[in-house]
Task: structure prediction
Amino acid sequence: MGSTSHGTLVTTTTTSATAVQIAQLRRMTAEPTDATYSDSDMADYIETYPCVDENGEAPRVPSTTTPGEMMENPDWTATYDLHAAAAAIWEEKSAVNAPNADFSADGGNYSDSQTFDQAMKMVRFHLARRNPKTITLVPNLARERTYETQNA
Result:
């Protein structure tokens, strides 16, 4: 949990990813311990992929004070796309295994490139199951009025 102070405005941020979500992401990525990814790392991956909650509320909405900007939605219930987070972790794991090569030594064949191939299969698996995305366009009314005035 961290906080920053800007004059009289104090912004506090808390980790919204739950222990259950972190445990599920660990299972989805074959990372049962925090040796490679700490719980904080897992929470960061989870929170990178917010999505529309069960009530249809988006994590960000058009600002009520500044036209053309977005703000955090106060009605949003923290909901995250764990498949997108898992795909990002598997993609990182595949990058670590990318330099591995197949070789033969002492009468044995070693297929180290299979770890890369398997990690990329898991990336595709999770990307195919991520939440659908939509984009909310926020019109810049000042710009539209200028265009209408110039072309009238």
About this structure: The chain is about 40% helix and 15% strand. Residues 1-14 have pLDDT under 50 and may be disordered. The CA atoms of residues 29 and 35 lie 13 Å apart. Strands lie at 2-6, 9-13, 60-62, 70-72, 102-105, 108-111.
